[in-house]
Amino acid sequence: MADTVKLGFAPIAAPRKGVLVVFTDEDFRFGAQTRKALGRAQALISLAGKADGFSGKSGSALELVAPEALRGLSRLIVMGVGKAADLKAADFVKLGALAMGRLPPRAEAATILADLPAGAMKPEQAADLAAGCELRAYSFDLYKTKRKEGEDKSRNVQVTVGTTEPAAARKAWASRESVVDGVKLARNLVNEPPNVLFPAEFARRATALKRLGVKVEVLDERAMKRLGMRALLGVGQGSDHESRVVVMRWDGGRRGTAPLAFIGKGVTFDTGGISIKPAQNMEDMKGDMAGAACVVGLMHALAARRAKVNAVGLIGLVENMPSGKAQRPGDIVASMSGQTIEIINTDAEGRLVLADVLHYANTRFKPQFMIDLATLTGAIIVALGHEYAGLFSNDDKLTERLVKAGEVTGERVWRLPLGPEYDKLIDSKFADMKNTGGRHGGSITAAQFLQRFVGKTPWAHLDIAGTGMGAPQTDLNKSWGSGFGVRLLDRLVADHYER
Ligand code: MN
Ligand code: ZN
């Protein structure tokens, strides 16, 4: 029942039916192509604009029943972009999303003219508009058997982007579509309920990437025991659902080149275990696998657009439940690296899962770098809210590249410190380390813990607890799961690591 958008590109012209969306700057000026398409309708638009006090401010819009001169159209939407010269790459995706959001609920066809006062948009910018439309239109209503009144049928909208270079825009769209599909896949995984998406089912869905040419291996508990992943297994031991680790490989780069490694926390439901969480909002803990969802979405994007890179994605999938078999505070486990961990709080489980998966990724693949994503700490929401993901890294170059990719995609990251003073806080009386460092600097001590499992490999940890799920709805996302990280990391790969 989900809405679907059918996207197309065509030469710039006024369509004969549906909704027409055009852009104007804050001086209420149109591009030359738009003026041509609007023709005699311009006089009426400027009258209507004056009457409404519409100026073309960024985010503003003027909505009109289509003027006589544009016969057949159901509606004309004039969208303000503010100072057109100030528009940055991320803004074009947002413009597409805003346009999509302005379409009336029953619209069946819409045409968006990719044109600004300074000239026609570039093919990449026209394709970005299309990406924004798709991201905005996403909804997750798999489990609704009824629509609200007046919404008895699912909406199919034909969206056409009018551009001076349709063929080039179509080409630019092809790779963006792969990335958008990766974002939607990640959102679907985050939004799924935890009774449906338990570790084995999550692994099954990741296995579907095989059809894109991704090599997928699934490690079951026996295989993990043999490898000595006792930190990860300890987290899952209270659950009736078996744990899994999934290894996904995309070999699109030169043979023999060390891969990039992406690692995701996939706690399909986190009750906190014996250190059980309060009931309030516990349902949100179905999203404690947003890091793993991002890694699967990213691998989808890279494979679908045939990225010229070697990349591996590894996800640790467990369910953290209290039971007679569950791990206790006070337990000491030996991680795959050989380092021992005293469990202080069974709710600090994500780092235990990542400890083994990071060590495994590092020793097996000797990657160029490792980036892990995890809904790791509530403390990161206290520090950064829902706007930035927390970034921790042992490598300045990788950090700089991630920050830049964040600015370009709008999936922003903010670096927080690491250091020996913080590292001391996780020393344990009885084992090599303990799994919490206390309330103060909680996101930092969690990152310090992870750092003990990455060796000298360049590494970055993204704490996405505030951005991966339950984030406030944005222009690009009206759903609960955001798919945060897919566009960020795809961009990082595209800008620096493809041959
Ligand atoms: Mn937890
Ligand atoms: Zn967790």
Q: What's a concise summary of this model?
A:
By secondary structure, the protein is α/β, with parallel strands linked by helices.
Question: What would you note in describing this structure?
Answer:
The protein is α/β, with parallel strands linked by helices and 499 residues long. It contains 15 helices and 19 strands. The longest helix is centred in the middle third of the chain and has 26 residues. The structure holds manganese (II) ion (MN) and zinc ion (ZN). The site of zinc ion has 5 residues, from β11.
Q: What fraction of residues sit in β-strands?
A: 15-25%
Shape: elongated
Total of DSSP H or I helical runs spanning 4+ residues: 15
Which strand order spans the largest sheet, edge to edge or round the barrel?
9-10-12-11-15-19-16-17
Q: Please describe the biggest sheet, giving its number of strands, its sense, and whether it closes into a barrel.
A: 8 strands, mixed
Over all CA atoms, what is the radius of gyration? 24 Å
Low-confidence stretches: none
Distance between the termini: 41 Å
SS class: alpha/beta
Bound ions, cofactors and other small molecules, one mention each: manganese (II) ion, zinc ion
Q: Taking all residues together, what is the mean pLDDT?
A: 95
Name the helicity range. Answer: 25-40%
Total count of strands: 19
